[in-house]
Amino acid sequence: MWHPPPVTVTVTRDRAPAVTVTALVKESVHPSPSDTTNVSEKANAAFVILTRNKDLKSLRETLIQLEDRFNRRYHYPYVFLNNEPFSDEFKEKIASVITGECQFGLIPHEHWSYPDYINQTKAAEVREDMKRRKIIYGDNESYRHMCRYESGFFFRHQLMDQYKWYWRVEPGVKFGCEIDYDPFMFMEKNNKKYGFTITIKEYVQTIPTLWNTTLDFMKKNKDMVPASNLMEFVTGKDGGYNLCHFWSNFEIGSLDFLRSKEYLAYFDHLDHAGGFFYERWGDAPVHSLAVAMLLNKSQVHWFEDIGYYHGPLWNCPKGKANAKCWCPEEESVETRNKGWSCTLDFVALPNPLTSDTF
């Protein structure tokens, strides 16, 4: 695998620190080093990006922002994954705008194909039915492979084996604020396992049996489910799924969590149920239900102070923390689209009295 040399990007800025507005979270975040400071303490972490050659323009725009806002100081590596070979042009033009080592990986065929236990005729009929009913991505076969891959396989790619933390990035997203501390180290030092920026509600037509399939797993594997968890966040007043999920196009998380026997058992249960193909289960509700089932609130963090945009939604800091942002705070989803967002419901949940999760 060819590894292009790192490219140094130097940007001079006023270093006055932004004030975080995550008032309910008491952990300290580390002060920002200057652009010329040698960062001696770093996490064993990487950005991971599932992308294709055709995404080159939008991905370069995203990476330039991410480097400018954060990684020009820390030089964390990048792992780019594709179910088709990356072109030389793609690799060269990506390497020219980032400061960390970059690796380009081909997804194994067995991770981006139908397992033997899936009836492909039935799956095709479902796609046609969803197309008739105009369900978003309902007829998209590749989208289903992507959701299954992000749910159960990206962290098993050999290029990810060396890392303990990941930050998921997608082509075309925007970073609207200076990130003047290391989110990876924040997660590691404060015993966090999963971090998010945006929560929304899922399209119920895409996941009609996901909730009951999850409850079935919990019933059959009671020993894996801790008493202190986040199920209240995803449970409606009627006892069903309230459709809340962490929007997984932005995640900062523990790879040890995804590699755990509990998460792998849950994914395997879902995979054999067939909902990635017989319905249109997304990786966002899958990750979210796993987090809710296996972690407690103290292990999950809302990165309220990271300005982040994935069309059409913003997460944008409020008050003084917005001083180093170009995103408008009134556009933040939990403010503008309260009916879509579950973030304030997450914030309002009580912290656990005990921590019996891994």
Please, could you describe this protein's structure?
The chain is globular and about 50 Å long. It has a seven-stranded mixed beta sheet with strand order 3-2-1-4-9-6-10. A three-stranded antiparallel beta sheet has the order 5-11-12. A two-stranded antiparallel sheet has the order 7-8. It is α/β, with parallel strands linked by helices and 358 residues long. A hairpin with a 2-residue loop joins β11 (308-310) and β12. The protein has helices at residues 56-74, 88-95, 120-132, 141-152, 183-189, 210-220, 231-234, 255-259, 261-273, 275-278, 283-294, 333-336, 343-348, and strands at residues 45-50, 78-82, 102-106, 165-168, 174-175, 194-196, 199-201, 244-246, 251-254, 300-302, 308-310, 313-315.
Please describe the structure with a list of short key phrases separated by commas or semicolons.
single chain, 358 residues, alpha/beta, 7-stranded mixed sheet, 3-stranded antiparallel sheet
* Record field, number of beta strands: 12
SSE class: alpha/beta
Main sheet summary:
7 strands, mixed
Element order, helices and strands?
A: EHEHEHHEEHEEHHEEHHHHEEEHH
* Strand percentage: 5-15%
Distance between the termini: 35 Å
Distinct helical segment count: 13
Report strand order across the widest sheet.
3-2-1-4-9-6-10
Please give a quick description of this structure:
The chain has 358 residues and is α/β, with parallel strands linked by helices. It has 13 helices and twelve strands.
